[in-house]
Amino acid sequence: IAAINIEAVYHSLVGGEYQPFNGICLTDTFQLHEKEDLVSHMMVANSNRRKKQKALDIRVIMGNPPYSAGQTSANDNNANVTYPILDESIRQTYALNSTGTNKNALYDSYIRAVRWASNRIEASGSGVIGFVSNAGFVDANTADGLRKCLADEFSSIYIFHLRGNARTAGELRRKEKDNVFGQGTRTPIAISILVKNPNATEHGQIFMHDIGDYLSRDEKLAKITAFRSLRGITEANEWMPITPDKHNDWVGQRDDSFGEFISLGDKKDNDSTTVFTNYSSGIKTNRDAWCYNLSKSVLAKNLSGMVDFYNAEVNLYQIACEGLIKGQYPNVDNFINADSAKISWSGGLTASLSRFNTLEFNNELIARSLYRPYSKGWLYFDKNLNERRYQMPSIFPNINKVQNRVICVTGRGATKEFCALITDTLPDLEMVSKGQCFPLKLYEKNSSPDKATATTSNTQDEMFSSPQARKSLTSDGEYTVKDGLTDEGLVHF
After folding, report:
1. Phi, psi (5° rounding) for residue 345?
2. The sheet that has 375-380: what strands, in order across it?
């Protein structure tokens, strides 16, 4: 279809005899330099085109790369393809220079496309990349390494930011307004022109133009049409030069005086002074529709049914593996029944099935939880059916027996505006976006409950007593309770 489009447009402009376009390849672009064509004997002409293209001195790469950081649900059984050579290139550049903790987003398809294209023109030493893509890299925390590498690798960078981020809220959402692709995507969009010119007098020059606030799709498209090209923005004197700061921020550059404040918590530097001893993300179930409910009885019914279905799948898989050695077992992802009305699969659950582990529904694991702000319901709090519980078992080990309070704040990488909310029940990861939770107390299960001594203390006394008077507390035997607040933090204040 793409070849016909190219041929038809060419013919309408040039006329004369209709000519086929022989430059197009049927291929996974990222696979071109990973391994040889596996179907060359079946598609000889296409394979020859691939080989010819790989040998060419490519100087210009244009495209609208796909946006995908991973499948939405394990039930889709459609995980991203891995590209060992390309992904290693990302690890050695964008990821290596990133300060982000979770770098999975750096393997999003559109960032892979930037890395692939950069590598492709590297051999020539000069060239131009023109992409219409997700604009998240402009200000995302995890993309600081990508921004650094772009500034290092290219002589000039032009970013026409088209906004349209639908994953925002409130006034910010109204400013972003329409996406140039309509309902086709919820991500912000940018037109990026990356120029590699070894003869340039200056390198790493960055220019940005923000299309503006409150614009409809038609208004944005009209602006793009009016500018026509980079030169149009230049003639209108609307490029904003960007000088990255030491954190490789391009926009919204941070005030470094913030670094002088005491940190709430720090898991990288054990010697730093912090307010809290430990902290945790909220619960990430990967199956909210099953593990949460406003009705305790409906939750029990749903989970009991799902557990029964899972156990039946384990039994079927065990039968299929009988008589086989482990390396010959059927692929779990291809074996399981992915009917989302019966179960919600995830990496942890399929791994459990591959080990023939069965589950047992336990009504005692149903706990009060805060799913969204001011929306309290019930959660099935179980290590087997919650994909990530993080440090929550040390903060709310048993919501029916212990009491605690956590201050939840918007986490790094969140697209929502900052907020803080305190709760005395188990919070979900998205109770506040990518929430990080700082606890008043930390619980440790006693190995010998009968030897624990019981003491009580007023919460107000616990929070504001002197460091010398604040000791580890013990409950009525099952858990040892420790202060979540540090002595150093209290001394600081």
Report:
1. -80, 155
2. 292-293, 375-380, 366-372, 426-427
Q: Is the pTM of this model over 0.90?
A: no
Beta bridge partners of 445: 479
End-to-end CA distance of the chain: 67
- Edge-to-edge strand list for the sheet holding 406-409: 280-281, 436-439, 406-409, 420-423
Question: In whole angstroms, what separates CA 12 from the centre of its chain?
Answer: 45
CA atoms within 13 A on the CB side of 383: 8
Q: Please give the sequence-ordered ranges of beta strands (E in DSSP) within 188-275, or none if there are none.
A: 189-196, 205-210, 240-242
Sign of the C-alpha dihedral computed for residues 161, 163, 167 and 169 taken in this order:
positive
Burial of 3 (C-beta count, 10 Å sphere; 0-12/13-18/19+) = middle
pLDDT digits 0-9 by tens, 36-74: 766 677 788 888 888 888 889 999 999 999 877 666 677
Tokens of 395: 């903060």
Q: If we measure between CA atoms, which residue out of 444, 423, 418 comes closest to residue 282?
A: 423
Q: Rounded to whole angstroms, how far apart are CA atoms 286 and 220?
A: 37
Tell me how far apart the alpha carbons of residues 174 and 189 are, in angstroms, rounded to a whole number.
16
Percent of the chain with pLDDT over 90: 67
- Other Cβ atoms closer than 10 A to 184: 9
Rg of the chain, C-alpha, whole Å: 28
